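Q: Convert this sequence to structure tokens.
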Amino acid sequence: MVTSVIKRGNSNQQVFTKIYFARVFVGIVPIVACLGLGAFMLSPAMPFPWVGHLVLGGGFIAGAVLMAALLAVPGILANRDHITVTGDAITFAAWGDGSRVTLSRQEGDLLLVLPGFAYPGRHVGRRITQLGTGRTINVSWFFPKRAIRRACDRSGWRFGYSPDLAERHLRRWRAWDWRASAYNFIRLHGPFAVPDVPGARLSLGAAILEEYGDEIIEAAHARSQSHMPSTQFLRHAVRVYRRAADEQRIYAALADSAGELARRTAEADRLAAKATEAGPASA
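A:
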């Protein structure tokens, strides 16, 4: 994996490029193979005069260099994702499908770094998100994270946290069905002890986590019907429901009447019961 940084003139633009390892590896394998053959040809075990050994070995080494130029270099030049940082926008462009994600300064300048996390069947890498918009840029897989952050700082972007923007952020992810990312966001920055909708008995955090837990349970049942292991999914569902119950209890503690406290607490007990039903008990 090779990473490069390109500084662009007077526009104060910096472009960070990521190079995938796959094609570089394809170019390196023939080099290693040819060098090995060349070394074998030079070994005393071969029934050729030493001049012949040198000629054959040199030929294989020259071939290795040629194959490296033909295979590795095109891969290095072609396989690059880009992150471009300016004072007006931060843009991620993927080389594979041509997709782009742009964090525009017009929608705010507050950035938040989200660490990578894993959940059953998938791993999500480290990201930078524009708080309040829901949009994220993946900076994992050998992008120069510190250099990107310094470039953002120099271009006037801020790194920090705002509860109001975080709530808006979470609602957008919910609308996009980014429930796994929402769960991790709540785990890092919760509780979100605000009504799911005006006058709701369920908090925003608890509602999102319950939806995510239900999604995991559905996935576990689908795996069971396909005779695939589902224990890992069930354990994760238990953790999510328990977190939902904890979020709801915090929301219940903010009730302004005994009756509302009882109703919100009943919702927390219901979520805890869903955790118990999901099992396994050791989760």
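DSSP finds eight helices and eleven strands in the chain.
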